[in-house]
Amino acid sequence: MFCNPFLLNEEFMISRIDVTDAAKAVIQELAEKHGPLMFYQAGGCCEGTQPQCFEKGGFYPRMNDAMIGLVEGFEFWIDRDLFEYWQYSHFTLDVLDGFGPGGFSLETPMGKTFKIHYRLFTEAELKDLEPVIRNE
User: Fold this and answer.
1) Using one digit for the tens of pLDDT, what is the confidence trace for 80-119?
2) What is the pTM of this model?
């Protein structure tokens, strides 16, 4: 039986990622149109470092990439190298009007682009962070 570590001691664990109401609305619309989703934030190059939204299974995380949590029930993966840089930061997924780099993300035809706002965790938060799942 699969045990989701993000549901264990949920009231005591500090989430690594949250989502704004505006992003929730876009995610709901995308899920209604495309079904199950997933998010991936790459480490640069052509796609930049903006998070991208795909149909579940439409993108395969690389070995040792990190899943930092669930966004509206959908996995949020981060490039392994980018995670090493941002591992002490809380992520807030937001959405803006405009077109992000690459144009492969599902929100692009809506004239939207997902964006992450970062803040450093406090020392107290670092002691109780939700676990990270690595792609093996």
Assistant:
1) 999 999 999 999 999 999 887 667 899 999 999 999 999 9
2) 0.87
Number of structural domains, the chain?
A: 1
Segments forming the whole domain that contains residue 99: 17-134
**Residue 121, in any domain of the structure:** yes
Cα separation of 47 and 122, whole Å?
30
| Cα 54 → chain centroid | 11
Q: Considering the domain boundaries, does residue 23 fall inside one?
A: yes
Q: How far apart are CA 1 and CA 66, in angstroms?
A: 22
Is residue 129, in this structure, part of any structural domain at all?
Answer: yes
Under a CB-based contact definition with an 8 Å cutoff, are residues 42 and 82 in contact?
A: yes
3 inside domain: no
Can you read off the two tokens belonging to residue 89?
Answer: 């930061």
- Give me the helices (H) in the chain, please: 21-34, 80-86, 123-126
Amino acid residing at 80: R
Q: What is the CATH number of the domain that holds 54?
A: 2.60.300
